[in-house]
Design brief:
The chain has 345 residues and is an alpha/beta fold. It folds into two domains: 3-219 and 283-343, Metallo-dependent phosphatases (Purple Acid Phosphatase, chain A, domain 2), CATH 3.60.21.10; 222-278, no CATH class. The protein contains ten helices and 16 strands. The strands form five sheets. Strands 1, 4, 5, 14, 15 and 16 form a six-stranded mixed β-sheet that branches. A four-stranded mixed β-sheet has the order 6-7-12-13, with no helix packed on it. A hairpin with a 4-residue loop joins β6 (158-160) and β7. The radius of gyration is 19 Å and the shape is globular. The relative contact order is 0.16. Mean pLDDT is 91; it is low at 1-7.
Length: 345
């Protein structure tokens, strides 16, 4: 049964093209309010609305963790979603939150041997530290937190129209087709216990694993670094894989050209693995695609005239990030003059 009487969506043929895409918020609600006001939205009857309802926001996910106002952020986003003034997509941090609180095998769902008698997301020190800002913001509000989890289940994994595509991390045709075959648009489609277990089945313990499509859309593809190489990310986690620039043709690119790890010096010479060379990629003639996730820095700029990342690290530890929007009006060649942003406060 779908929750909140809300129908999850993935493809809309006739959606308006007057849209404001907004990147990762991560509990920075003061910046979100400032950005909405800068875009011309006004708070009315409990939700932000554009005058005359002439524009709609598309939130690209990652509302929770890191910032100090996660609860307020979720309430604002949900109010806009419920009022019809925004579409809110799922981010990897919302997926991680659902997994963090889901017992392995709960509700008769698949029991993953790798996770043993625990939760679907490991309760390690680093993972608890990342999620701590979210939990602390709901202290004394257990039922409200449960309601937030139910809301998160209804967030669509991706959004596609005739004019654009949007998802939190990576658009991948095979991933989208895999979910469409099973009519999955969000985690409220069907048995949640089963879906969340299948999405976490990284070792393919079951034939119906959804790990690859979910991970690709919400976290993006990665490739291993050469043996002995690693880097430490901004949260102190040792990484032995690098994210892939999925809009670059892997058949011709070097290892360095395929690496997309902003803020990390990646002076690595290595052969690109055959399975990476064979990956599909997002071509120059595709409709515009919008996403967040990748921790860009500096002033907003396009990756390409049809590839737009809107995560400019408002939650970055340096405190010099930005919350960024792109004002879209159906153009098939994007324009850098249409970025709107506010600095981290």
């Amino acid at each position: 049964m779908r929750k909140d009487n809300f129908i999850c969506i993935s493809y809309i043929g006739d959606m308006t093209n007057s849209l404001d895409f907004i990147g990762d918020v991560h509990g920075h609600c003061d910046e979100l309010r400032a950005l909405l006001k800068k875009l011309g939205y006004v708070e009315s009857n409990g939700a932000y609305r554009y005058p005359g309802n002439e524009r709609t926001v598309v939130f690209l996910g990652d509302y929770v963790d890191r910032g100090s106002k996660v609860r307020e952020t979720l309430n604002l986003v949900r109010a806009m979603r419920d009022a019809g003034t925004a579409v809110a997509l799922m981010g990897n941090h919302e997926f991680n939150m659902l997994s963090f609180w889901q017992r392995n095998g709960a509700g008769g769902g698949h029991f993953l041997k790798k996770m043993k008698d625990c939760y679907l997301r490991e309760h390690s020190f680093n993972k608890m530290a990342i999620h701590s800002r979210t939990v602390s913001d709901f202290v004394g509000r257990k039922q409200e937190f449960q309601d937030a989890l139910e809301f998160v289940k209804t967030l669509p994994i991706y959004l596609e129209t005739d004019s654009f595509r949007a998802q939190h991390a990576c658009f991948d045709r095979a991933a989208v087709e895999a979910l469409r075959r099973e009519n999955i648009t969000c985690f409220a489609d069907g048995n949640f216990d089963e879906l969340i277990a299948r999405a976490n089945d990284e070792d393919f313990e079951y034939e119906d694993s959804l790990f690859v499509p979910m991970s690709t859309l919400l976290k993006g593809p990665e490739m291993p670094l050469p043996e002995g190489e690693h880097f430490t990310d901004a949260e102190g986690v040792r990484r032995v894989k690098t994210r892939i620039a999925w809009w670059v043709n892997p058949a011709k690119a070097s290892f360095r050209e395929l690496c997309f790890q902003p803020g990390v010096s990646m002076d690595v010479q290595a052969e690109v693995l055959p399975q990476v060379r064979q990956r599909d990629y997002y071509g120059e003639k595709e409709r515009p695609v919008f996403f967040g996730h990748y921790w860009l820095t500096g002033l907003p700029k396009l990756i390409r005239d049809n590839v737009c990342c809107l995560d400019f690290s408002v939650a970055g530890y340096r405190g010099n990030g930005r919350l960024v929007a792109y004002r879209f009006d159906g153009e098939q060649k994007l324009d850098e003059s249409k970025f709107v942003f506010v600095d981290a406060m």
